[in-house]
Specification:
Blueprint: E1 43-48, E2 51-56, E3 59-63, E4 72-78, E5 81-86, E6 92-96, E7 99-103, E8 111-115, E9 121-125, E10 141-144
Antiparallel strand pairs: 1-2, 1-4, 1-10, 2-3, 4-5, 5-8, 6-7, 8-9
C-alpha cells in the first residue's frame, strides 16, 4: 500500500504525460498527418523549400519567417476540396489563367488536396488542375498556427 502524496488533500492526481488532459502530448517518431490540419476554420501556415506562402502588397510571395501575412484560414468546399483565405487581409488564393493570385472567394478559389509520399501536400486548382499553390514549388508542408 502506497502512502505517497499526489497533491493537496481532495485534489485530483496529476495527469500522466501524454494523457488526454496533459498539454504536452508527444509521441516519439510520430508526426501529425497533413490531412489532420485541413478542417473548416483551421488556421495554418504553408511552407515549401522557398519559404512560407505569404502576402505582401496584395501579391503572393514566400518569406523566410512566420508572420501574420503567412496565416491561412481553411474553408471546406467539398470532399477533399478547400479554399484558403489570408487571415490578415481577407483575400483568397484563386486561379487567374495559369497562376495562383489573391482575390475574392469564388469557384476559381477551390483547390483539391493531393498527399505526397514525403509528407507534403499539393493543392491543384479545381478550375485548372495544372495550376498548383506554391510559387514554383507545389510541395507544401503544413504547420498549425
Amino acid at each position: 500500500v502506497s502512502t505517497q502524496s499526489t497533491g493537496a488533500p481532495g485534489s485530483a492526481p496529476p495527469s500522466a504525460p501524454g494523457s488526454a488532459t496533459s498539454p504536452e502530448v508527444s509521441l516519439p517518431g510520430y508526426s501529425m498527418p497533413p490531412g489532420a490540419l485541413l478542417y473548416e476554420g483551421s488556421v495554418l501556415l504553408m511552407k515549401n523549400k522557398l519559404g512560407y506562402l505569404s502576402v505582401s502588397g496584395g501579391k503572393l510571395e514566400t518569406t523566410g519567417s512566420v508572420n501574420k501575412d503567412a496565416e491561412w484560414r481553411v474553408t471546406s468546399s467539398g470532399f477533399m476540396v478547400f479554399s484558403f483565405g489570408n487571415v490578415k487581409n481577407g483575400g483568397f488564393l484563386k486561379v487567374d489563367k495559369s497562376a495562383v493570385v489573391l482575390g475574392p472567394p469564388g469557384n476559381d478559389a477551390c483547390f483539391s488536396v493531393r498527399f505526397n509520399p514525403n509528407g507534403s501536400v499539393s493543392f491543384a486548382a479545381t478550375a485548372n488542375e495544372s495550376v498548383f499553390i506554391g510559387i514554383k514549388d507545389p510541395e507544401m508542408f503544413l504547420e498549425m498556427v
